[in-house]
Amino acid sequence: MQLKKYTDYGLRVLMYLAAKEDTKRATIDELSGIFNVPRNHLNKVVHQLGKEGLIETRRGKNGGFLLAIEPADIRLDKVIRRLEGDEYWVDCHKPECAIFPVCELKHVINQGKETFYDFLAGYTLASLVSNDAQIREFWGTPIPVTIDKD
């Protein structure tokens, strides 16, 4: 299983906001430069994080965004489920699988998925930024990221 880039970017945004020392609002341009991620991708992610109530967004001259919830209260399993969409990992219906009624694959994969999320439930956003001072050291230079043109 591989997380979507969308989810990766969402987690980066949340980590950035949690590790910031000041209460100044972050901007899309700021994050785009730091993470070397296209603005339009970040706009979509930030919009959803706002809709989910994880960040507070403000438009306009003094606009930007901040965390709306304490990092210790943001569980990773919930964030990843929201950003990934809670879809089945095996699609038995497109095309329709001939052995669907008797196949055990869907059950095994779904059990593995739930085990994955149960594991993540033990971690919060605060768990990811316990080394916030070290994280901030890298913010002066963009993090090397290869951007696919998709």
From TrEMBL:
Entry keywords, A to Z: DNA-binding
InterPro entries listed in its UniProt record: TR_Rrf2-type_CS, Tscrpt_reg_Rrf2, WH-like_DNA-bd_sf, WH_DNA-bd_sf
GO cellular component, one term: cytosol
GO molecular function terms noted in the UniProt entry: DNA binding; DNA-binding transcription factor activity
Highest taxon of source: Bacteria
Keyword hit for DNA-binding: yes
Protein name in UniProt: Predicted transcriptional regulator, YjeB/RRF2 family
Source species: Idiomarina loihiensis (strain ATCC BAA-735 / DSM 15497 / L2-TR)
